[in-house]
Amino acid sequence: MTGPRQVLLQRRGPDAVVALVDGAPEHLQEADLSRFVARLEAAGAGPRWVWDDTTRWYPALLAAGLRVRRCLDLRLVHRLLRRSPLVDQGLLTGPETAAWDELVPRSATSAAAGSAGGGAEGLFDLHVHVAALDAAAEHAAQQAALAASLQRGRLQLLVAAESAAALVAAEMTHAGLPWRADVHEALLAAELGPRPPAGEPPAVLAALLARAREALGAPSLNPDSPADLLRALRRVGLEPPDTRSGTLSQLDHPAVAPLLEHRRLSRLHAANGWRWLREWVHDGRYRPDHLPGGVVSGRWAAQGGGALSVPAVLRPAVAADEGWRLVVADVAQLEPRVLAAVSGDVDLARAAAGGDLYQGVVDSGAVATRSDAKLAVLGAMYGATAGSGGRMVEHLARRYPRAVEHLELAAAAGECGEVVSTWLGRGSPRPGGAWTQQAPDVPVSEADLRERRSWGRFTRNFVVQGSAAEWAASWIALLREELWRIGGAGRVEQRPHLVLFLHDEVLVHTPAALAEEVADAVRGAAERAGRLLYGEFPIAFPLDVHVGSSWADAADDADAGAPA
DNA sequence: ATGATCTGCGCC
DNA sequence: AAAGGGCGCAGATCAT
Description:
Blueprint: E1 6-11, E2 16-21, E3 24-29, H1 33-41, E4 48-51, H2 58-63, E5 70-73, H3 74-83, H4 97-102, H5 108-113, H6 119-124, H7 127-132, H8 135-148, H9 152-175, E6 177-178, H10 181-192, H11 203-216, H12 226-235, H13 245-248, H14 256-272, H15 274-280, E7 281-282, E8 285-286, E9 289-291, E10 301-303, E11 324-331, H16 334-343, H17 346-352, H18 357-363, H19 370-382, H20 387-399, H21 401-415, H22 446-487, E12 497-501, E13 505-511, H23 515-534, E14 543-548
Parallel strand pairs: 1-4, 4-5
Antiparallel strand pairs: 1-2, 2-3, 6-8, 7-8, 9-10, 11-13, 11-14, 12-13
This protein binds a DNA duplex through helix 12, helix 14, strand 10, helix 19 and helix 20.
């Protein structure tokens, strides 16, 4: 019993939907949509749902208890293809191209946090606008552009991974990240003292501020104002170039300690304090918007409460439900491994084979210590040119010429204003600076030269960061399939499901009995992702996998910060 | 008042 | 002696 292979959904006004079922139109009411989707999803492998934008279709289906197996997200694919150097842009452009360029995802959080009565976003939302976009025509143009590409295999992988990522993102917002408000409050109390009355600073902050003011003889000092703080420091004979923590910590003065502690705790209070908890955590879940492809490199972005920078000190509050576990997995040294693969550097791949790439670089004789290896590899990927990082890069280049040359070429292309591409064909944006317009014989100003170099560092990093992002997207796409297979029955949130994705790390919330199976699935998906993208190239993606009750149980600072 | 930009810092 | 890539967010400051 097999169903249709592909169903394209198109809105036609406020309540009407047209479904092209393998090309044959069926007319539906919006209210009948979930039944329609459920019926076709149950037939065989389920169709590929083709729609303008996952954020405009999938949340309602999830709310109705459904889950779809695969989709094609025309908005995300449009953005990919529009920028890819592997695509003939002429095949892609049409009368609605600009409208597709401007289509933005629908936000769950800004709608929810908006004013009473639905908020401006709801009224402003472009149902009309989106209904006017011709999804079938866009789909046809995209398929034609893909078919004509000399690298269509890679682009099709990228399109599939990006669309699957859109499903994962919607499911993560739907299920929410499990968050224990009581644990969070206890952590806040331990750091900041009891919750202060509204509008007042926590007692610990007030005391630290008083100590800093006293030590500087500046009774009205506002430590949040860099200018004010610099003035106060100058009055006691200190001349730091800026007021960053690292700079202040070099100073020898009794005000420094309370200032730094105040800075750390006031940030915790402002970014993730009681107000954050009240705004973002409801019924034990934190539900930010996840935005696949939200960063030009293809990394995800997130909106609402700073989901991608949950401070380490609060991670104990991210805790599994009773009878459930969190499976936390991160890839060891993802970006240098991806660099080895995309540059075809078998020596760097060999250095990675032992599990610790940095140690492998040391064992190859390129550098003396693990921390030198880290400096060298990160320096090469970020574009360090001077100091210890730059010197280490020279050592790296002698031992791993292919990997380093790959980066140098990306940087050189960027400095010339050219587009670079990830492994699967995501293109970098074009630079906008004045330097791109200059005739070759015009002398280059110092400022323009700095800008060129800066753009070169961006394109250098783009090929690694972006290729790593598409590996990671493939990883979670494959993992999503595995988790569904493991789960047995029930809705997405009743089975093992992804709750957070952080560039090279995933959190899966799972019934305790399935946790070990989930851990295996996470490893298996990483292995399959490596083969899917890099074939037989001998690079592995080893994971640190922890099963625990909270995110903090997985804490592993083996690689945190610069080793001494 | 409102919005853009800067500084600083959390995360990768 | 550090330095370098990507984000989001808060608060201060500047511009309108």
